[in-house]
Design goal:
The chain is an alpha/beta fold. The chain has 14 helices and 27 strands.
Length: 485
């Protein structure tokens, strides 16, 4: 018999993929409280408050305390009695007044479903649990604790027990991976936690509109653009509205920058990167068979490790890291595979490349080889690779981690980095200076078109390329352009 919870403690960023999505990696865990009245054993209906439109799910692993832990005594995983599935629902429309505590946004009755089955902690390895979340039958979250957790379950319990007593039945929500997004009335969200031998079963919650009007007392629902971005997360909207941005690059940097990035060459961008001392942002040794294609998107990363036969089945079976990365793709992503430059085994083939395209990828990059090359070349999106090979991935590679920093084509690439590709290759634009580089690149190409026109008319390149003061003055007066940067 599991005692009732005296408190529910939720953690903020604990999964690498979620930290990458939010753009910050915490040095220590942080927490907030949810009222026990938010608990709903075995799930059921999730009532979205009237006037709210940003209800988001967060599939989580719940740790249920089995042995009392208190300050001054050793505490950790041994104090956990059971694990089960949970869903940390929240309405971002109600964050404005108490974003730090999350009380109104995450504390409503029933907003913490958990169950249905409880796995005894003594029977499992906490580093080998898998968490999955489905929305309307489609997998939206999948993470393995040993790969993704920034802080172990042992550390969470020990940290909390330094200052407060954890009673049997108390629940620690251990955080959520990337993939959380907004759901609407009628959507069905399911969460399952599995170990090597056990499962919690699927925790099922159905979103409904609350029949009770929200009384006009205190803070009322409102949402800033930042609230909307946080609610939708990297997964983007499941039910796009006409107002939803169709261009993820424009949504982040504005139309002017998005148009500029699609109009200039990677050669020009590489020149601008060089002027800023950014020599490590050009991906070396990869090419595409596509011609006349421009690729602009955000990195969705997956790392491969060298083959080790005893880990082959565990790392390649089922929804492995390679397939997880593809199923996490949202429109505007570029799938980037870090394959250590090993080119004598395929790193992606026609079926998974097609699935990436269907998910909304705008391109694929690998510093390894491509299989089924003719079919991959025929897709609507470009694939940049270091070569071609008929060999299967597992000849030399094991899919390892998703949404982590990787090395690809000699470049450090972090999840969400901006990538631009064309016939010449691919460059990475650090987000902090992408807009500045884009504008400068447009001006550089305007100046270079002027120079080309002069060369075509028979002018010498001496003093013209680069332009001296006289040519620069003529250029500015004839075109209205500024000096190329």
């Amino acid at each position: 018999m599991i005692p009732p919870a005296t408190k529910v403690i939720a953690t903020h960023l604990t999964y690498r993929s979620r930290a990458a999505e939010r753009g910050r990696v915490p040095a220590e865990p942080s927490y907030f409280l949810k009222p026990p009245s938010s608990l709903a054993l075995n799930g059921g209906d999730i009532r979205r408050p009237q006037g709210c439109g940003l209800l988001a799910f967060e599939g989580e692993i719940a740790l249920v305390i089995g042995r009392r832990a208190s300050p001054g005594a050793p505490a950790g995983w041994s104090n956990v009695g059971w694990v089960t599935a949970a869903n940390d629902f929240g309405v971002y429309d109600l964050r404005s007044a108490d974003a730090g505590s999350n009380l109104r946004s995450k504390g409503p009755d029933g907003f913490t479903p958990y169950g249905p089955e409880f796995i005894a902690a003594e029977e499992i390895d906490p580093d080998e649990l898998q968490l999955r979340t489905w929305v309307n039958g489609e997998l939206r979250q999948h993470a393995r604790t040993g790969d993704e957790l920034l802080f172990s379950f042992d550390a969470l319990v020990a940290d909390l027990a330094r200052l407060m007593t954890l009673e049997p039945g108390d629940i620690i929500l251990s955080g959520t991976p990337t993939g959380s997004t907004v759901v609407e009335p009628g959507d069905v969200v399911e969460v399952e936690v599995t170990s090597a031998r056990s499962t919690t079963g699927r925790l099922r919650s159905t979103v409904v509109e609350s029949p009770i009007p929200l009384a006009a007392i205190g803070a009322m629902p409102k949402a800033t653009p930042a609230d909307r971005a946080a609610a939708y997360g990297a997964a983007g909207p499941l039910h796009p509205s006409p107002a939803a941005p169709s261009d993820p690059v424009a949504a982040r940097f504005g139309n002017e920058v998005a148009d500029a990035l699609r109009s200039v060459s990677t050669a020009t961008l590489a020149s601008q990167l060089r002027k800023r001392g950014l020599d490590g942002c050009v991906l070396d040794g990869i090419a595409t068979a596509a011609r006349g294609t421009t690729m602009v998107g955000f990195a969705r990363t997956v790392s491969y490790m060298p083959l080790r036969e005893d880990l082959l089945e565990a790392r390649t079976a089922g929804l492995n890291a390679q397939k997880q990365a593809i199923e996490r793709i949202v429109p505007g992503d570029v799938l980037v595979i870090g394959a250590r430059g090993v080119r004598n085994a395929g790193t992606i083939g026609d079926i998974l490349a097609l699935r990436a395209q269907q998910r909304g990828a705008v391109g694929i990059i690998t510093d390894g080889a491509v299989r089924d090359a003719a079919a991959v070349d025929a897709l609507d999106i470009p694939t940049y690779s270091a070569g071609r090979s008929p060999s299967v991935l597992s000849r030399h590679h094991l899919p390892w981690l998703v949404d982590v920093a990787i090395a690809c084509a000699g470049t450090l690439i972090e999840p969400g980095d901006l990538l631009v590709g064309d016939d010449d290759g691919v460059v990475l634009l650090p987000p902090g200076c992408a807009a500045e580089i884009a504008v400068a690149a447009v001006e550089q190409e305007r100046a270079e078109r002027f120079i080309l026109d002069q060369v075509r008319s028979g002018e010498s390149v001496d003093g013209l390329y680069p332009m001296n003061a006289a040519w620069r003055s003529r250029y500015e007066s004839e075109t209205g352009g500024g000096p190329p940067r």
